[in-house]
Every structure is written in structure tokens, then in C-alpha cells.
């Protein structure tokens, strides 16, 4: 498929400077940008079919972790927000399992798309991962699977929702809950979220929605999926510098192989 058959350019004029600036301003102010029906119904169908066809290739992981995605700190109790465990479980197929003629690869590699993302994110440029697995990931979540509360290590995330579950699988977040650059971890605020005592926001997204999210200082999760329909979400991962690969330990954790 050509890029013009994938992106809904009538709704989203990616090369238009005014449109780019509106998107950037919204992301800067809210920490999240949601573009519904970003891809065409035809492209969505093809990606969904590829995902269903290759689901048997997915590596499934189930991890206990804290919200900071760091090793436990012995200076704090096990039930302290710094160490309190949450659970994440999902399946994943990797970049080298995505077909060469997939609309996902056309979209990911397109200069028009990449320039738009870089402008909105305030980056000088965006580059593929140097390893063969990390650039495009398609995630599967079946009934009971979830992503526990966490902060991202990276400054931004770009996702494309392919298939919604029957119920659950909602993306919830609390923006600006910490300041990682200043080392302010806000344990009290995290404790309130983990105890269900703090109001959270829900990012509303249907299939075909492109979302940009700044998760470094925003605590976020995906609630457990309910029902027989698998939640499928694509993560389009870029780096702000060329030649960067995901570490071998991270690849073993996320993908089960190198």
C-alpha cells in the first residue's frame, strides 16, 4: 500500500505547518495527543489480519515490577511506593516479524510521517533502532492481561491501536506526577494512585487511533482486558539519535531472544 492509502491525509495534513503546531501545542499542554481514525479502514483491516495471522509467533511475558521500573531499593519497605509490586503481562511480535509489505512498515519508514512526529515531539530527527527487533512491536493482550502502573524511561511513546477488546484494556494516566529530571519521585502521590485514592484520566481511543504520549513523568497503565477479543496495539519506537539498540538484557526480557 502507498502512504496515501494508509494515512487519512484529508483529516490530518501532516505537512501543514499550522496543523503541526496545533498538534505540538496540544501535546505540550496535555502530555497526550490522540488522532482518531488516523489510518484508513483498508490499512487497519490489513494490519489486523497480519496481527491475527502472526499471533502464534508472539512471545508472552509476565512480570512483577515497581512503577519506577527499577530494582527494589532496600532502603524502603516492600510495600513502600518505591518498591510496591504491580504486574504486567502481554504478548509481542517484533520488527523482524512484520512483513516487508505491511502498511506498518510503510508508515514507520515514511519521511512525511517521521518529519511530522519529530516536529510535534520537538526532536531534531527520529531514527530506527539499531537492533532488528525494537522498532515496530505489535502487542497482544488477552483476557486478564494488563500493563501495571509505571513511568516510562523514554521521553515519548507513539502507539497505534489496531483492535479493541470487548471490555477493559483502558489506558489510564495521571499527568505530571513526578519530575524525573530533578529526582522528585513523589512517593505520596504514587501511593494515592496505587491505593485508588486519586482521580485518573482515561485516554479514549478506538481502532485506527494514533496516540503520542509523554510517559516519563506521567504515571500510566492499561487495565485488565475482559472478554475473548484480543487487544492489539502497535508501538512505533524511534530514537532521537541514530545507532541506538535496546540492550541485550531488555531484549531478553521483552522478546525472549536476541
Automatic annotation (TrEMBL):
Residues 71-90 are annotated as: Disordered. Residues 129-240 form the Fe2OG dioxygenase domain. One of its GO terms (molecular function) is oxidoreductase activity. InterPro entries: BesD/HalB-like, Oxoglu/Fe-dep_dioxygenase_dom. The keyword NAD does not apply. The keyword Metal-binding applies. Pfam families: HalD. Keywords: Iron, Metal-binding, Oxidoreductase. Residues 71-82 have a biased composition (Basic and acidic residues). Belongs to the iron/ascorbate-dependent oxidoreductase family. This is 2OG-Fe(II) oxygenase. It comes from Motiliproteus coralliicola.
Amino acid at each position: 500500500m502507498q502512504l496515501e492509502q494508509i494515512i487519512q491525509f484529508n483529516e490530518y495534513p501532516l505537512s501543514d505547518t499550522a496543523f503541526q503546531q496545533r498538534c505540538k501545542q496540544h501535546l505540550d499542554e496535555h502530555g497526550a495527543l490522540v488522532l482518531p481514525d488516523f489510518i484508513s479502514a483498508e490499512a487497519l483491516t490489513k494490519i489486523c489480519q497480519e496481527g491475527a495471522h502472526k499471533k502464534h509467533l508472539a512471545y508472552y511475558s509476565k512480570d512483577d515490577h515497581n512503577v519506577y521500573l527499577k530494582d527494589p531499593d532496600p532502603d524502603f519497605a516492600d510495600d513502600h511506593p518505591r518498591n510496591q509490586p504491580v504486574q504486567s503481562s502481554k504478548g509481542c511480535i517484533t520488527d523482524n516479524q512484520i512483513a516487508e509489505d505491511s502498511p506498518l512498515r510503510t508508515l514507520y519508514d515514511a519521511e512525511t510521517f517521521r518529519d511530522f512526529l519529530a516536529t510535534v515531539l520537538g526532536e531534531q530527527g527520529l531514527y530506527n533502532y539499531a537492533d532488528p527487533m525494537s522498532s515496530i512491536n505489535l502487542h497482544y493482550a488477552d483476557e486478564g492481561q494488563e500493563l501495571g502502573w509505571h513511568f516510562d524511561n523514554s521521553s515519548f511513546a507513539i502507539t497505534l491501536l489496531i483492535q479493541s477488546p470487548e471490555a477493559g484494556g483502558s489506558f489510564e494516566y495521571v499527568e505530571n506526577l513526578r519530575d524525573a529530571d530533578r529526582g522528585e519521585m513523589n512517593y505520596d502521590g504514587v501511593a494515592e494512585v496505587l491505593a485508588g485514592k486519586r482521580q485518573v484520566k482515561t485516554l479514549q481511543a478506538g481502532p485506527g487511533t494514533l496516540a503520542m504520549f509523554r510517559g516519563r513523568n506521567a504515571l500510566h497503565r492499561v487495565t485488565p482486558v475482559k472478554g475473548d477479543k484480543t487487544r492489539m496495539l502497535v508501538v512505533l519506537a524511534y530514537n532521537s539519535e541514530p545507532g541506538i539498540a535496546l540492550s541485550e538484557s531488555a531484549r531478553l526480557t521483552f522478546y525472549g531472544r536476541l
